[in-house]
Amino acid sequence: MSPVRAFLKVVLLVLAALALPVALGAPTVVHAVTGLNAPRTDAVSPTPAPVAYDPTRPTVAVVVGDAGAVASDVLAPYEILAGTGAFNVYTVAPASHPVPLTGGLDLVPDLTFAGLENLLGGPADLVVVPAMPDVGRPTTKPVTAWLTTQADGGSVILSVCNGAAVVASAGLLDGHRATAHWLRLDEWAGTYPGVDWVAGTRYVDDGAVISTAGVLSGIDGTLHVVQRLVGADAAVRAARAIGWPYEASSGPPRMARARLAPSDAVVAFRTGFGWDRPRIGVQLADGVGEVEVASVFDTYAQSLAADTVAVGDGRVTSRHGLTFVPRTASVAGLDRLVVPGTTEHRTVPGIDAVHPHERPGFAYDAVLQDLARTTDVATARWTAKVLEYPVDGLSLEGPSWPWALTLRALALGMLGVLLALGALGLVGRRTRATRGAR
């Protein structure tokens, strides 16, 4: 066999080894990613609870688009700011229908853009912009147009995670320093070159625009806003209330910029070959904390290791007045049930319930530990990396790696090679037979 033919045979076998895993894994990956903010399929659209308004307090608008947003980006800043008692805090959106936060959590906005205008008669004092799944698409036009109006009226803008790209797409970051999630920072630098993108910091305060790095970096950025607008003592109390380490300072915490590493391949095995992903119900009840809710939905959803769905009866009101609409009241078809919050235990017939927040501490710790136990440590570490949450001091116990899924991928690759070798052998025999018949 000539060197060229030998080389082509090797290339063919490599492609064959990849073909089956890619062909069978790609649809699963697409389903997992696109399902993060999948809208509900019914027409349920309850009216949110009436909002209170104190004209002596500054007003915060946490904006969500029609396609939804990342749960932690919305709920963590909301609880921190509402918990201080120093602000009027509302979730706002172009329309009043439920919007999907990551993992199957539907939020009914407190106000529409028009409703906020009628309430205030002008712009909000602070606008919080989370990451949205349709950033840069025409569907975000109502949000970006409204952001421009708010900024022109003097609002301070706080972007969380890839919410910075939403703000940048409105042209409001041109000439400003900003940061965003490490995984897409280079992409935003190419898409929005007028922005001075900064890596290696949890937030950037550039005056009228404050931006944070990925997901839980939004907590540091929000506490900085509390310190800036209310005072250092208020920021420390707000951090203590959610179990987050925070010291009043004059600058943002530095951090090493995360980059993809070989161990991050776990997400490919977990997502592409986890065809039997568990379906986790998240039981919601009135009074549940917003950060507690986000910790469950975002940890499992961002891991891409499970599908989550909100479970509850009718409308649920959170600790600080947000309105959630569970997608089901039944536990039928669920593999597990997780109950966020420190509310009393309730027996749910037909399924064992897990209560991750029985002990005090930062809400995400216990959920990440549960993720490590029920999947593997590598998946939990990847999820923490996506959340931009340092877990070096957090004990994570469980299988080290998804070996069964890895073997599933390798078996598919070997099957592809065997099929290719069989096809090559068949072609070779036919070629030799043809030559012999001449």
From TrEMBL:
Transmembrane segments: 401-428
InterPro entries: Class_I_gatase-like, DJ-1/PfpI, INH-QAR, TAT_signal
Signal peptide start and end residues: 1-32
Residue ranges constituting the DJ-1/PfpI domain according to the UniProt record: 60-225
Keywords: Membrane, Signal, Transmembrane, Transmembrane helix
Protein name: DJ-1/PfpI family protein
Organism: Cellulomonas wangleii
